[in-house]
Amino acid sequence: MPLGMVILGRQGSGKGTQAVKIAESLGVIHISTGDMLRAAFAEGTELGLEAKSIMDAGDLVPDTVINGIVEERLLKDDVKQGGFLLDGFPRTVGQAEALLSYAENDLCLALNLDVSIDEVMTRMLARGRDDDTAEAITRRLELYETETAPLLSWFTERGILKVVDGNGTETEVFGRLMEVIEEILGK
Ligand code: B4P
Fold first, then answer.
1. Quick check: 187 pLDDT over 80?
2. Over 80: is that where the pLDDT of 1 sits?
3. 83 in contact with ligand 1, CB cutoff 6 A
4. Which domains does the chain have, with CATH numbers?
5. How far is the CA of 34 from the centre of ligand 1 (A)?
6. What are the pLDDT digits (tens) for 117-131?
7. Which of 27, 37, 85, 155 has minimal CB crowding within 10 Å?
8. 15 is catalytic
């Protein structure tokens, strides 16, 4: 059965950074909703142009839009064969429910990268992406608390949440994540 995992965490916690390394190490397909939205903007599609203003304001793209994009991606052959690591999805309970409706059998692990608000602020301001303005960051962190943090108990109830300390160097955090993954996979 293909392996299905999600990585959660505050914006700027390093989900994207670590997801690339994990996917490479395990040979699963890395699916970043943030990257998909930024690619859609770079291509000038209607979706991309709409998403850009939402992202710049620090808001969340509506569930109906993002759920459709993810479902379509999960149906591709590479994912069906290789498994997936979702990065930045789900971000709301509505997204998590949609995910279970199309990938329940494959989903075996939800990793939460735990980094303090002060640390993510520092990292995002240093990163300097278009949507890393002080106002947008504040809005994203507020939305994380109201929309995304409830997912932690949601995944705990399903017995698949593992919390990993996201402080320290990229290599240290990667080591901690792989230790948890290998334990779950029984390696
Ligand atoms: P994302 O692209 O998912 O970006 P992010 O959450 O801001 O960053 P991430 O946690 O991946 O951190 P990174 O590795 O870059 O989302 C962007 C926007 O897209 C959202 O705000 C939203 O509008 C929209 N969106 C995406 N998915 C959505 C969904 N499902 N529903 C609705 N809307 C959605 O790391 C951050 C920085 O820290 C980097 O500069 C990195 O180099 C640095 N860093 C990483 N690890 C470090 C370490 N250990 N030490 C020091 N620095 C580190």
1. no
2. no
3. no
4. 4-185 (3.40.50.300)
5. 8
6. 999 999 999 998 999
7. 27
8. yes
Query: Nearest Cα to 73, choosing from 44, 102, 94, 52?
Result: 102
Neighbours of 36 (CB within 10 A): 18
Burial grade of 143 (CB within 10 A; 0-12, 13-18, 19 or more): middle
Residue 92 vs residues 39, 49, 133: alpha-carbon distances, Å: 22, 22, 23
Residue among 66, 83, 85 at smallest CA distance from 148: 66
CA of residue 13 to ligand 1 center, whole Å: 7
Of residues 91, 139, 162, 187, which has the active-site annotation?
91
Averaged pLDDT for residues 29-50: 96
CB of residue 112 inside a 6 A radius of ligand 1: no
- Catalytically annotated residue among 15, 38, 123, 176: 15
Average pLDDT rounded to a whole number, residues 56-75: 95
Question: What tens digit of pLDDT does each residue of 134-165 get?
Answer: 999 999 999 999 999 999 999 999 999 999 99
11 lines ligand 1 (CB under 6 A): yes
